[in-house]
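Exercise 7 asks you to align residues with tokens for two separate proteins.
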Amino acid sequence: MLLGTLRQSFTLLECWQMNKRHPSFRNLSLIFLFAICSLRPVSLLAMPATVLATPQNHAHSEEGIYLVFPFENAGAPPRLDWIGEGLEELTIHGLAKAGQLVYSHDGRLNEMDRYGLPPSAKLSRATMLHVAQEMDADYIVFGSFNSDGKTLTVNARVLRVSSIALLPVVYENGPLETLMELQSKVIWRLLSTNDRSYYLSLSEFAKLQRPLRLDAFEQYIRGLLANDDEVRLRDLKEAARLEPDWPEPAFALGDAYYARNDCAAALPWFAKVPATHERSVEAIFATGVCRLRLSQPDKAEEIFAGLQEGLQHNSVSGADLPEILNNLALARLRLGNSAAAMTALGRARDIDPDEDDYPFNLGLVSVQQGEWATAATHFAEAVQREPDNAEDYAFLIYAQEKAGKKPEAEQERAVAAEAFGEKGLPALKLDGKTDSLNKFERVKKELDTTTLRLDLQDPHVQNTTTAVASGPEKDAPARHIRQGRQELNAGRFDSAEREFRAALVLEPQNASAHRELADIYRRRSKLDDAVAELKLSLAARDSAAVRIVLARIYLEQKKTDLARAEVDKAVKLAPNYAEAKQLREHLERTKSTGGAQ
């Protein structure tokens, strides 16, 4: 999604937080980072990507997304292992501050987790390249470091993904306490090596980087790496104490408490994250979730409505985000505005055709209103979207019985018994009152970055689909794909399809363009066309995520054997890919209970 979208969203919220002292938000700049990465595989096909965008308005000639890996310890004492992750973090933020787009640390970790690769694994260049291709990255940054505890040596390289090329090594060394300045030189040299016409001098580049105390940075990185919660909190608090105006530790502390469902402790830390900071949208969204958890629907509505209004006022995309719509609906429902809640939930359901939480929440609204037949319809849709969710079945059966559809309820009960066992459904004790239903509401705790992937163009070209003319011809397919994605996420399917087809005219075997077309066809219920496009995508580049999407379409077409074959191939490609394993288990259960083949 466009950077302009979030400029407006954040600045609008900032104005609200400052008693609306400043109504203008169009020209403010900010960094944008989403570190939550559980992506659905329909739109970007399980690219668990978090993109950090720059606040700079400079045009740079070499567009593309960077993917940074931790720097390997090439001989430093184990107590300095943290430097490897630290150099990765500095490189990510250094690239972004200088005008580049770069995937976050979390985005990389989630992609590696799909393939069962430990966070600290030493990866071959081939593996790095495969991960980068799955994430649609354009450049890979990797390297190593060495230190005797007093001096530090850093080596770094850029690997171009398409066409594949390994750029010359960059080398810097100096006193360990100058780590920040040293890595800043490394990043600048990487950029100037990749782009001979790079527009920033070393001194100009250095001025963009935030000066930090080395001890604060070390505590921050150690906190991020800590496996023990108490150690993590201790280290992050020490980083915040040493650098009280540095937002990163504040966000990390808020996020740590948020993960523990300790909203009382999380909120003060999230409040320390400036509205123009790269993690602001996560802090704002999490704050809204906390307000729902703390039974403060009025404050939650203000937060989510602000995010939503900012998106709606964007002249470029006008896109909606289903997670925001869902939580806004639940806040309004608790405030007694069921009509507005139904509208927002209906929009969320339409945007994300795979997620069962949205029709489930619609069913809860209908239950609250005593509209049992309508509730049953919504719960049936939830079951269709997620057949492995026992709670969806339980509510479907409950609504059908209340609607007087006893035979249908018994039939669903029999299906559920085969899938979950005779006592596999949760017992529902409902009195129809709002309070008894609130505990079943499905609040979205994280934003899905599939719909928030940023446009890579600069602001002055965001309103046109002909920006390809301003860059090298080799970049044209990527530009069309990026433009197509923002059109798709804004709900403009025809425009999106034109962009993807334009990319394929320039590069007929572009895997990304084919899989995006498949997404459009699937949303339009043209399943045969979607299958054809996915096969073309796989012919260009094999992918476990794409095979799982293909398997799900085969299931929609009642072609279980074909679906099972695709799932087996996906598991072979990525043995630890959770979605592939879950779908295989579902198919095995269906087979063992005599389900339809």
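Second protein for Exercise 7:
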Amino acid sequence: MYTKPEPIDIIRILNNLGENPTLDQESELVSIVCKYFDCIKQEYLTQADLKFLQYIARTSGIPQFYEMLAKHQQDTQIIEPNIGTISNYIYDKYLECVDGRKLHKYQKRIYDLFEKGKTNRYFLSASTSFGKTHLLFDIIQKMDYTNVVLIFPTIALLAENLERVYTEPNLASIKSKYTIHTLSDVDTFGEKNLFIFTPERFLSYLEKDTNLVKDFHFVFIDEIYKIDNDYEIDDVQKENERDIAYRLASFYALDPMVDVSNKENDSFNKFLQLNNIKFLDYNAIEIVSKDPIAAYRKINYNDGKLVINSNQRSKKATFITLIQDILAVKENTLVYCYSRSQTEEYAKIILTEQILPVQENTELQLLLDHIGNLYGTEWITYKCLQHGIGLHHGLLPKYIQKETINLFNAGILKVLLCTTTITEGVNTSAKNLIVLNSKKGNKTLKPFDAKNIAGRAGRFMQHYSGRIIVLDREFDNVVKEEEKPIKHKNYDKEQNKTNIELTLVDDEFLNESDKNNKNKIKDAIFDSGIASEIFDKYKMIGALDKIVLFHKIIDLVKNPIKLQQLQNCVNKSMYNILDNDGFEQVLDCIKPIINNQKLGEMANFYGTKNEWQHSLLTICLNHYLKDGFSGLFKYKAEKTGNIDQSMRDTSEFVYNILKYQLVKYLGAFNLLYKYLISLEIDAPIDDIDGFDKLLSKLEYNAYSSKAKIVSDYGCTNNVISYFEDNLSDTERNNIKNKFDPYEKKQFDKITKWMYE
């Protein structure tokens, strides 16, 4: 049962604080003050009440608690200020930073640590609601750095923070001072530069041959716990080397303020100590309190607003009751599912029970009409959106993911079912979180995962507390487990190192086997005859694999027929056309070094009984280049008759296989092929025709810089095409005339923030 704190409880904690309270004592105060505000926010408040509330908000270090009252009370103005209220106003001024934005006390402590002329290397571990990214931008404005790099785990978070810089008034000074870059290809630099990258894009940026900025004055690496592959999320990894990308990014960019959870751990502590990084642990401070509700047994819950009384025997029946009760008080809810299939399964339960009627909303209808025309009305996502239900997982078109979150945060969608993608690139405003399962895919959640998921209940400045409604007993057990330490394998002698990183690791952290492998790699590099500047590129492919690939290309070039097929493929690729025979020559070269199972299967599968002359990968890529995402989807839907599975397969192919995997191997092939030809004809490598345009299409779904940025932002193919270079006014107008109403709205929005 929900219990309301009493003022005497707060006063007792205040009296026990002393002059130098511990972080745990401060955490206890923040928690009880937060809960008190949540309970009293809609009660009748006298002037004495307001003065007391302002006082405890200030004393807890979170004066924003008092400001939030204005959302629930008509008048929170204190009419007759006294010494106490004046001291509150003075304290508010102390918490202000650049441009007058107010921090809370714990952000301000970190903000004050940053001083010009100092190294300022910090490792910040804090709760989901702490406001780490907001603090990041305040520090950048305070320190007035020249070159800043922000590394985020996903394109979605990259795009979200890019949009923030362009649109949020409090970040106007950053927009005006900095030239902003999100692409690895940079044409011009400003006096001050802000780079917003993913780890992979940061590494790609470092590999360019132009006069790049490499003197970074500040680097922020978000979610760096991904250096440990055990912390990979979602039921299928987008790239099984994501941990390597994070380790390489931190190695090359090491001047970080990083964001991660950490416990005592030899290898990770060595990483911090040897790189002079100070650990800041603020996990105890939870700005939005959490109200856990065990729904795996009889529920009798009442917090003054939400009332749940249920004795259902099945999880699905309890789930239906919960959704109905939450909707009855006009609130929305997130639903954590362990897999994509579970998001659809429970969405169908809501649809079958007719819990939500068809939604009447203009914004939603624009998206529905667009989806219906492009993908059909039988797609589960369409049916869900129709009834105010959103799905969010890794195998949906990116712009639909983005729009789903926007509609949910706007209150148009009432239920959002999601996988662990909720913890990566998703900022939602849900007070309620229903947890269906204690797993992510086939694996049991780690305590860190579970806490990260639970942290999505409630949002600072919108809610005082969030409800975590758990339908799986094991989830509660996982949350209570002691968190295992993060490992940094490059600082652990007992951990075998990958060939990709082996040459970068100090011998102190190598066992004898690794030392032997490291020496073999160095000898192989020396004997290969490949220039060092070529080896330095495509860091996500190991040196030995590059050597194998190089020799395969040499053999290919020696065969006149195969070489002619390859050159035909290169020439056609410049016009967005795939020559199937020539592309098979490329695949024959890269197959021996492919370590991604799905990519390898598609490259080696040729159908049955001579059904196909070319691999499944070649066939799917041909359809994608010819007709785009929707064309490939329609091809698969016609072949299988299963719209939902066809959409999942198409999304996995385009967003995972092509964008992350094929780009890597085709890029390495392209580099080594052009290098070899440049040696043979004694010409600059940049003068050799290759697959550069095809690579741009696969990675960005675009060619020009503007179109790539629009693609990152999350727009449809038609809108992306409008921003391509080398189009006549007539061609551009023809594209614009094809926009449906949803695309017109999207176009107007992207144009506004790009050009204002």
